[in-house]
Amino acid sequence: MPDRKRTDDTNDALPGGGHAAPDAGAEAARRRRRAQFLRELHEAKELRDRVQPRRARAERMRQAVRMRTFRW
Q1: I want to staple 49 with a disulfide (CB 3.0 to 4.6 A). Which of 17, 37, 56, 57 is the partner?
Q2: What is the pTM of this model?
Q3: End-to-end Cα separation, the chain, in angstroms
Q4: pLDDT tens per residue across span 37-64
Q5: How far is CA 56 from each of CA 49, 50, 68, rounded to the nearest angstrom?
Q6: Residue 45, CB half-sphere, CA atoms under 13 Å: how many?
Q7: Phi-psi region for residue 16, left (φ > 0), alpha (ψ -120 to 50) or beta?
Q8: Residue 54: helix, strand or coil by DSSP?
Q9: Is the dihedral of CA 12, 14, 15, 21 positive or negative?
Q10: What is the DSSP string of 29-48?
Q11: What is the Cα Rg of the chain in Å?
Q12: C-alpha distances in angstroms, 7 versus 4, 26, 32, 45, 59?
């Protein structure tokens, strides 16, 4: 498997990671892309739930069981 290089620089989030913060324009663009992605993801999940109601119901039941067994 070829060695892949990361495109995101996670060192920026760490103290002393290079420079203080990315410019506001790049940050705003990243947030817009992220918001768009989350909107599309939510829409795709709703569509899947409408198209496959039995699978959606089973997933809701599994989630309910997970939430009941998880202790805060």
Answers
A1: 56
A2: 0.49
A3: 41
A4: 999 999 999 998 889 889 889 989 999 9
A5: 5, 8, 18
A6: 9
A7: left
A8: helix
A9: positive
A10: HHHHHHHHHHHHHHHHHHHH
A11: 19
A12: 9, 14, 18, 28, 34
